[in-house]
Amino acid sequence: MTDTVLDLFKLTGRRAIVTGGSGGIGLAIAKALGEAGALVALVSRTRTRLEAAATEVPNSVAVPADVMTIDPGQLVDECEAALGGPIDIVVHAAGFQHREPSVDFPVEQWDRLIRVHLTAPFLISQELGRRQLAAGRPASHIFIGSLNNWQSVVPNIPAYAAAKSGIGGAMRALSKEWSDRGIRCNGVAPGWVRTELTESLFADPEKSAQIRSRIPMGRLAEPREMASVALFLASDASSYVTGQMLVVDGGWTTS
Ligand code: NAD
Fold first, then answer.
1. How far is the CA of 18 from the centre of ligand 1 (A)?
2. Is 234 exposed, middle or buried (0-12, 13-18, 19+ CB in 10 A)?
3. pLDDT over 90 at 115, yes or no
4. Is the CB of 197 under 6 A from ligand 1?
5. Helix 158-178 crosses helix 107-114 at what angle (to 10 degrees)?
6. Can you tell me the mean pLDDT for 211-228?
């Protein structure tokens, strides 16, 4: 029987790594990939939290690791061993925030933010790309951007803004080099999503109301609304999409 368009979204037999998979957007994406049939390695720092998350994700294993300090070769070896073979999909969703005015912003926090949001995704994708190119294996690499790729949305986050602007460029560079050999590289740029990362902003009723009033759809996003877009990018449904940062922001950037 001929495949229907819905079959293109299936990930049966594919193996995926999702960093930041213990919560928020990463966990929602991991669930979507698992529900679509992929075997998923969840990567995050805290074993207990990660193991709890793995119970929510079909076909998943917990691989505790800190992307700030991990050796990418070791991480990929561990994920391949846990999933029983080479990796087809990676989603770089690990992240944190540090808010402080630029005049006081400590270099230690600058380095940590750049490491987690920019250097680690590049190094992990580099390691996977080496293996996938050598094996002639098609793959999908998905980076998580932000409104800060294009705009200075809120003050006091200079390192986050720099890292998020940078990851779009790194993603496009990898797409340029690898997509002729079947490795597509794309990104999801979420608008405002209710997660631990944004909890402190939304806890402030005034700031929260200000943000909502500026979103044409008039509401925040749920993590699952990022997950369905990531599933599209991970799957053959997006077979001719590469080098794109898909903005999922309820209309923010176009209003
Ligand atoms: P979150 O805090 O809910 O989840 C972040 C995850 O990353 C957690 O699982 C955490 O344990 C993990 N993590 C943090 N540092 C890590 C490290 N060093 N090593 C391994 N894992 C680590 O945040 P979220 O909102 O789900 O953010 C996910 C991604 O989406 C981030 O890149 C963030 O910048 C981006 N993003 C979020 C929003 C939003 O509104 N929430 C908007 C734009 C972009």
1. 11
2. buried
3. yes
4. yes
5. 30
6. 96
**CA 138 to ligand 1 centroid distance, Å:** 27
**Ligand 1 contact, 45 CB (< 6 A):** yes
Q: What's residue 226's pLDDT?
A: 98
How far is ligand 1, taken at its centre, from the CA of residue 44, in Å?
10
Across the chain, mean pLDDT equals: 97
Q: Is 196 in the pocket of ligand 1 (CB under 6 A)?
A: yes
Which of 44, 47, 194, 249, when mutated, tests ligand 1's pocket best, judged by the most ligand atoms within 8 Å of its CB?
A: 44
Question: Is ligand 1 within 6 A of the CB of residue 24?
Answer: yes
Question: Is the pLDDT at 217 greater than 90, yes or no?
Answer: yes
CB 93 within 8 Å of CB 18:
yes
Give the active site residues. Answer: 160
What Cα–Cα distance (Å) separates residue 170 from each residue in 43, 162, 251?
21, 12, 25
* Structure tokens that stand for 146 in this block: 């932000």
Cβ-contact 216, 145 below 8 angstroms: no
Do residues 88 and 138 make contact, with C-beta atoms less than 8 angstroms apart? yes
pLDDT per position as a tens digit, 149-172? 989 988 999 999 999 999 999 999
**What single string gives the DSSP state of each residue in 147-162?**
GGGT---SSS-HHHHH
State the Cα torsion 152-153-159-162 to the nearest 10°. -40
